[in-house]
Amino acid sequence: MSARAKSLCSYIFPAMGGLFVTYLYNVVDGIFVGQGTGPAALGAVNIGVPFITFVVAVAAMFPMGGATVVAIRIGRGDKEGANHAFMTAITLTALLSAVLMIIGMTFSQQIVDISGAYKLSDTMRKMSADYLFYYSAFSIPMLMSTCLSVFVRNDGSPTLSFVGMCTGAIANIFLDWLFIFPLGMGIIGAAVASGLGQIFSVIILLLHFVKKKGQLRIQPFKIDFSLIKKICKRGIPEAVSQLTTPVTALCYNLMLAGLTGDIGVSAYSVLSFIYSLANAVLSGVAQGLQPLWGNCYGKQDTNGMNWFFRCGIMVNLILSLFIYGILFSFGEPVICIFNNDNNLVQTAAVALPMFSLSFVPMALNLIFTAFLFSSKRTAQANMVAVSRGIVIKAAAIFCMPVLFGSKAIWAAPLAAELFTLILAIGLSKMTKLVYK
Question: Is 199 exposed, middle or buried (0-12, 13-18, 19+ CB in 10 A)?
Fold first, then answer.
């Protein structure tokens, strides 16, 4: 195996696994809540998903933007500058998570109402507010675990990054079982279990810096507003790209709450959990490639940049087709993992084949976006990310049922991803790789 191939495997698999585990927290909550509390609670968890994933997406701007700056500076041999970017990014993440914790706990009821809860039953509305309140209480460890995992991975310890996230996931699974079944805490127990699991992840990830294993150090630093601007600029495409999850969930919740009520929202909850895991795997490949592209860019290694890009496209294409094949062949058994209610299973099973087909163009769009912003083509990366994550996706979800009937709502993500893919290919061919 060549040195490039070894680097590819050592970065994309831990990144893919780490991000998969990050999203697994909500999915495990969904499984235990669906099996232990019922379809209404499953829908209630989904009502909180737009805000929770919005928080994760916005906070991703700092570690991913910071990681890009760190990788380029390390490629240039600027260790001090790389550490300054690292400290700036984790400080910004900590401050933002504190603000979002206060907002989520103070306005939990208002937030879920904006997400469509006001159109649902009083039971589901109250449960969704309770879930969001307790989940928001753990915003700091939730966002810091994601941030630290990125830097631990990029600082030469991808395995520890993965182990840290897995430790939190295992703790979450055990605590979900304990709080929901023996202790009967219901949806509140699921939220608390997720938060405690994230604390375990943070403890494991901090060992990398305590033992001084890599080049990055937790140490005093000076505020540099030009560096903050640079980190935000590099991280915005990743944040916008991840916004596709909360935007999709919010639009679907609003439309389905009016069209089909509780059962439609509960059915979409299952699809949303499946989508989040697929997105995690495919985004993980793109995130794993980011430090490799950054190092190549810092060294002005065009051949290396293009080689990793081609590998990313091929890996994500294969993974997306594999995921779609599994869901197409075993759709109902996968749905039954969450809940066995006949109405829910039938509604979700009808929607899943068309809904999951969007994973294929989505996989390619994620690679294009990450490659463009890693090579400092930020404007082009932003155009692709905004198209995919916000504008086109929302327009498709709201317009397709009106134009083609209610069932067309499940084809909206596919239409949006295909349109974005055409845009991404066009932008990448129109712009050349320039070293700045």
Answer: middle
- Note whether 129 and 122 are within 8 A (CB): no
Element (H, E) at 50: helix 39-59
List, as one string, the DSSP characters of 96-148: HHHHHHHHHHHTHHHHHHHTTGGGS-HHHHHHHHHHHHHHHTTHHHHHHHHHH
Least confident of 104-118, 235-249, 283-297: 235-249
Q: What sign for the dihedral angle of Cα 367, 373, 377, 382?
A: positive
Question: For residues 229 and 412, what is the distance between their CA atoms, to the nearest angstrom?
Answer: 35
Average pLDDT, the chain: 85
What lies within 8 Å, CB to CB, of 340 at 6+ separation is: none
Burial 90-103 (b: 16+ CB within 10 A, else e): bebbeebbeebbeb
284 close to 19: Cβ distance less than 8 angstroms? yes
- The pLDDT value given to residue 203: 93
Q: How far apart are CA 332 and CA 344, in angstroms?
A: 10
Q: What digits encode the pLDDT tens for the residues 365-416?
A: 999 988 887 787 878 887 887 777 678 888 888 888 888 887 888 899 899 9
* pLDDT-derived band at 1, boundaries 50, 70, 90: low
Specify whether the CB–CB gap between 66 and 91 falls below 8 A: no
User: Is it the case that residue 25 has pLDDT exceeding 70?
Assistant: no
**Angle at the Cα of 53 from the Cα atoms of 259 and 252, rounded to 5 degrees:** 10
- Integer CA distances (angstroms), 329 to 332, 353, 357, 407, in order: 9, 9, 13, 21
Q: Is the dihedral of CA 243, 248, 249, 250 positive or negative?
A: positive
Supply 134's token pair: 């307790």
